[in-house]
Each structure stands twice: as structure tokens, then as C-alpha cells.
Amino acid sequence: MAKQARRDISALIDKGKVETARIKTEGIISEDIHLELLELMELYAETLLARFTLLDLPTREPDVSILPALTSIIHAAPRTELKELHVLRDMLMSKYGRELAQDIMDNKDSCVPERVMTKLLVETPDPKLVDLYIFEICRAYDVAFSSPLLPETMVQEENNTEQQEAQMSKEEAEVEKQIPSNSAKDAAKSAHKLKPANRTSNKHATSTDVNDKPGAPTKNKTEKDDVDSLEARFAALKRR
After folding, report:
1. 51: buried, middle or exposed (CB in 10 Å: 19+, 13-18, 0-12)?
2. pLDDT at 210
3. Average pLDDT of the residues in 138-149
4. Residue 65 neighbours by CB under 8 Å, 6+ apart
5. Cβ(224)–Cβ(231) under 8 Å?
6. Which of 67, 69, 149, 217 has a C-alpha 20 to 30 A away from that of 201?
7. In whole angstroms, what is the distance from residue 43 CA to residue 80 CA?
8. Torsion of CA 2, 7, 13, 19, to 10 degrees
């Protein structure tokens, strides 16, 4: 649900409906604040569980170490929809008395932690916070958004990022132009493979041509030639 809401906000900004996007963003901020409150309640409940021995002491005065958790749950539990917190709140009020519980509900002497009280405030979110939310949402969905309420450093950082991406795209395009196509690579490889074969075939052809020339002396003599030569030598000896 939250992801869809953020996508809708980026779409509204892309269409130029900034005010509608701001109203929807206020709803998202309120939901986030409520979730933060629930996380705090979970933290304080775990604190009481870890220090249960202090809760079990036979006294109406709570220990100082569990006081923030105690006051937070008693004060903020009615603002949540968790039944478990409501049950825990009733148990704490029964343990330490209605008088202490009333002081906590009135936040007497600022006994409730400030970070809990800020989550319980009912007010319109700060416009600067709203635009910061929109800026981050638009960045996630690659949608341009600018506002005079945004810090200059964030705007400058976004501009630098866009310039770097454009420069990288330009460099990649130049590199792709310098790389030969696949067909040219294949042709070069084929030519390289054919060169040694051509040399071998030419050498073979040359040697064949030399041996096939008429009148060329043969290197190896046959057995018949050897016999004829011996007979000629014997005939010459007889004549002597």
C-alpha cells in the first residue's frame, strides 16, 4: 500500500499536480509517524519485560529505570489500536494506582519522554518536510522535482548526479563506436586462420612442381639400375 502511494505521488509530480502530491504526502508522513510510535511502544514493552523483577516489587513507587517505559505506555497506549498495549496499560494502572496514572495522562512535570510526545502531536507536517519526502520519492522513481524549500546542497547534489550520468552515457556511446562490429571481427578471425593454411599449400605446391619438372634427377635409385651398373663394371673388367 505504501509503495503504491509513493508511486502515485511520483506520477502526480510528473503530471505537474504538485499540490495534490503534497496532500497525499502529508498522509504518508502521518502514517510514518504512527509507525514510529508503535516501534517505541514495542521497545518500552520489551524494557518492562526485561526488568520484570522491578515490576514485581511490593511497592506503589515505580523504579526510576522503568519510569520512561511505564509513563509512555500509560500515556500513549490509548492512541494505538493494539489490544495488547491496552491490557498492559490496565495492569500497570492497577499496580501503581489511579492517581499516578492520572498524573501520567496529564504529563505532570513532563514525565512522558519528549520523543513520545512529539509522535502524538496532531498537526500539519512542516512544508519543508513534505517537500523533502516528495524529493526522495521522486528520486526513487527517477522523476524531476524542485522546490525553493529544499536545501541547496540536495539540489546541487541531484544536478551533479544527473551530469555524471549524462557524461557516463556519452563515454559509453563513444566506446561503442570504436569497437568493431561482430561481422568485422569474424572476418578478421577467418582471415587469420586461413593464412597458415595458404602458406602450407603453397609450399606443397612448390615442392610438387619441382619434382614434376622433366629431366630432374631422382634422388633414390631403383634396384634395377643398381644391377645394370654392376653388369657394366664386370663387362669392362673382362675386356681388360
Report:
1. middle
2. 41
3. 92
4. 51, 54
5. no
6. 217
7. 15
8. -30
Q: What is the pTM of this model?
A: 0.62
* Predicted confidence band of residue 206 (pLDDT cuts 50, 70, 90): very low
Residue 107: which residues within 8 A CB-CB, separation 6 or more?
75, 117
Alpha helices, DSSP H only, in 97-181?
98-105, 114-120, 127-140, 152-178
Residue type, 218: T
Q: How many CB atoms lie within 10 A of CB 33?
A: 14
Residues 6+ positions from 105 with CB-CB distance below 8 Å: 74, 75
Using DSSP, state whether 180 is helix, strand or coil. Answer: coil
Q: Using one digit for the tens of pLDDT, what is the confidence trace for 1-11?
A: 678 999 999 99
- Specify the DSSP element, H or E, that contains 78: none
pLDDT, tens only, 46-81: 999 999 999 989 998 999 999 999 999 999 999 999
Give, as one character, the DSSP assignment of residue 16: T
| Per-residue confidence (pLDDT) for residue 216, from 0 to 100 | 45
Q: Is residue 130 a contact partner of residue 20, using CB atoms and an 8 Å limit? A: no
| Residue 63 vs residues 56, 69, 71, 201, 228: alpha-carbon distances, Å | 11, 11, 12, 101, 133
